[in-house]
Design brief:
The chain has 314 residues and is of the alpha/beta class. The chain has 13 helices and 10 strands. The strands form 2 sheets. It has a 7-stranded mixed beta sheet, with helices on both faces. Strands 6-9-10 form a 3-stranded antiparallel beta sheet. α1 packs across α2 and α2 packs across α3. The chain is globular.
């Protein structure tokens, strides 16, 4: 096994010298895309799945979300005019929920991130001129989100909206009116569990790493997103197996996709990204994560009241 690995590493190094680093990256990406297309064709032949997580595969997404999105896109009738996405909180876009839609399905898209250097890196990359992508530097809040969409030419019906800003996600989605997505992907904080509809209180300048040293105090619970989705005319259809992304489909596009309640679709996150006051990873499990932020307050959506985590969760 070691000899085979060394042989492959040697061949890749030789190929890299011959093609250049950029060429090698393109070759690897193309191989991933070809493999994913085979999986998509297999998925089409299977039909409806019991769990959307069964469709998972990863090309550019952090976990298996590329596969889930392809499954939902192929279950929903999306016209060419609506093959448009918006994603915010993309960092440098190397790892994202929509890059596969851009490169494989040739969708048009808008991405936003608060870091100027991240967006400059995207614009300087070859994918930017090869595809119809608009990349914008913006620190998003609930008061500027619609203006950002309108200003850059994204209004009306779109295929997919992906929300991941590790903070005011609930409050921002609540305010979005400029676009009417068929599919919404929202990152939820599984530390808050499935029972309560809670979110961090709104703070336009919220930053996760500053709010609490543990990096665990951010965003909203799955139930909070499910209640908001219901008000906006969406059905919750499941979570990814990593326990961080929830999927919602607009009711008029649901067709035969099975809607779920919060308890049925909740997945506890298995990844461990908690930190101590010095910034070191502590790898806390699920129960210990909640205890770590027990002194913090959250907004209880159902009772419209602030409550301390320790008092709510006992």
């Amino acid at each position: 096994m070691t000899a085979l690995r060394n042989l492959l590493i040697g061949k890749l190094a030789t190929l890299g010298r011959a093609m250049g680093l950029e060429g090698l990256r393109d070759q690897i990406t193309e191989s991933k895309l070809l493999t994913a297309r085979v999986l998509i064709n297999q998925m089409k032949s299977v039909g409806l799945l019991e769990r959307i997580a069964d469709a998972e595969f990863k090309v550019f997404s952090q976990f298996g979300d590329d596969g889930i999105i392809q499954y939902l896109v192929h279950q929903i009738n999306i016209s060419a005019d609506s093959q448009t996405f918006i994603e915010f909180g993309v960092q440098d876009y190397q790892e994202s929920n929509t890059r596969f839609l851009l490169m494989n399905d040739t969708w048009r898209g808008l991405i936003l991130d608060g870091s100027k250097s991240n967006i400059e890196k995207v614009i300087q990359g070859s994918d930017y001129w090869r595809h119809d992508l608009t990349a914008v530097t913006a620190f998003i809040d609930r008061d500027n989100i619609n203006d950002l969409f309108i200003r850059h030419g994204f209004t009306g019906e779109i295929g997919l909206l992906s929300i991941d800003i590790d903070g005011n996600d609930y409050w921002v989605w609540e305010r979005i009116e400029a676009v009417n997505p068929m599919i919404v992907v929202a990152e939820y904080n599984s530390t808050f569990g499935a029972q309560y509809a809670v979110t961090i209180p709104y703070d336009a300048s919220f930053q996760r790493s500053r709010a609490h040293y543990s990096n665990l105090y951010w965003g909203a619970s799955l139930k909070a997103f499910c209640l908001l989705a219901e008000r906006k005319g969406y059905a919750f259809v499941g979570s990814n197996s990593a326990g961080n992304n929830a999927y919602f489909v607009r009711l008029d596009k649901l067709a035969n996709i099975k809607p779920l309640d919060t308890v049925q679709g909740y997945v506890a996150a298995r990844f461990r990204e908690s930190r101590n006051a010095e910034g070191d990873l502590t790898y806390l499990g699920s129960a210990a994560r909640l205890h770590e932020i027990s002194s913090m307050e959250v907004f209880d959506i159902e009772h419209a009241a602030m409550v301390r985590i320790a008092d709510l969760y006992k």
